[in-house]
Amino acid sequence: MNFLSQINKYVLYVSLILNGLLLIYIAGPVPFFLYLSLVINVILVWYASMCLLKINDLEEDMIGMLKQNEEFLDNLESVHSLEMYYGDEHLQGLIDNSRELVNDFIEIQEKYFDVEVVDLEDDEPEEDTTEASEE
């Protein structure tokens, strides 16, 4: 902050205090407490609006990161499906890590924001244990 904005802030604070003292001297304690209540309520409304703006920005950033990670996962899967790289263990590990990261983002989004999303599932088929037990 520059010097003039700091001075303006201090002048505002001193003005609020002096107006309160003048009000209590002239009108008594009841109007002073009403004045004090009004000042506190204005400050709390301002603080709540700033918190809501920050939460909205955070949610937008999380959604953007989730979309970018999903695009990365799609690009990685398209490279993995090429004949040249099909079955490469390193690419498969990257795909699995990317899926876990997307699912972590989704869990955080569900935890802190009022959204319901479906987790990305692994493409690998689960082994059927019933066939092994029948043999």
Compact description:
The chain is mainly α. The chain is built from 4 helices and no strands. The protein has one domain (3-121).
How would you characterize this protein structure?
- The protein is rod-shaped, with a radius of gyration of 29 Å.
- The termini are far apart.
- By secondary structure, the chain is mostly helical.
- The chain contains four helices and no strands.
- It has one domain.
- Residues 124-135 have low confidence and may be disordered.
Draw up the topology in text.
Elements: H1 3-26, H2 29-80, H3 89-112, H4 129-134
**Beta-strand residue fraction:** under 5%
The shape is rod-shaped
- Percent of residues in helical segments? over 70%
Ends: how far apart? 77 Å
- Number of helices, where a helix is a run of at least 4 consecutive DSSP H or I residues: 4
Number of domains: 1
* Unreliable sequence segments: 124-135
- Biggest sheet features: none
Mean pLDDT: 79
Total strands:
0
Radius of gyration: 29 Å
Structural class: mainly alpha
Order of helices and strands: HHHH
What labels would you give this structure?
0% strand; 4 helices; mainly alpha; disordered C terminus; 135 residues
